[in-house]
Write a structure and sequence with these properties.
Layout (H helix, E strand, L loop, with lengths): L3 E3 L3 E3 L4 E6 L7 H5 L3 E7 L8 H11 L8 E6 L5 H20 L12 H21 L7
Antiparallel strand pairs: 1-2, 3-4, 4-5
Helix pairs in contact: 2-3
């Protein structure tokens, strides 16, 4: 496998990723019961020497829910019948996840609402309030 070349000169070699295989589920008859075609890639983001410290914190933040408690990123693939194709698929997904984690989110530019949009919102609120008021029981004359 070719190393993953990421922006800002970061390179993740294949040796930095642990590859595990297991039996995949789903249809396939006897073949599925005998071959370990599911591939799980385990990348230790928290301790990897390939990732600079200043990038690691941002990557952990972006990947948050996808990381294990030890800071490992797991990617599994079992769509194909052959282990090699599942490995290629998982490698591509790992690359796209790492690229996503390195993206810097755009800063939000504050804008003011237009006068007409404020008017529309207030008009809608008044109409909703009137509709609710009309549903109420009329006051009793006691």
């Amino acid at each position: 496998m070719d190393p993953i070349n990421l922006p800002r000169g970061i390179e993740v070699p294949f040796s930095a990723v642990q590859v595990e295989t297991s039996r995949a589920g789903g249809p396939g008859g006897q073949h599925v019961n005998r071959t370990e075609s599911r591939v799980t890639l385990r990348f230790d983001l928290a301790n990897s020497p390939c990732i600079p410290d200043h990038e690691r914190a941002a990557m952990k933040q972006r990947l948050g829910s996808r990381l294990t408690s030890q800071g490992e990123l797991l990617v599994s693939a079992q769509a194909h019948r052959e282990r090699r194709r599942n490995l290629e698929d998982a490698w591509k997904r790992l690359e796209s996840l790492l690229r996503f984690a390195l993206e810097r989110p755009r800063r939000r530019v504050k804008t003011r609402p237009t006068r007409s949009s404020v008017e529309r919102r207030l008009q809608k609120k008044r109409a909703h309030s009137d509709r609710k008021r009309m549903r109420r029981r009329p006051p009793s004359d006691d």
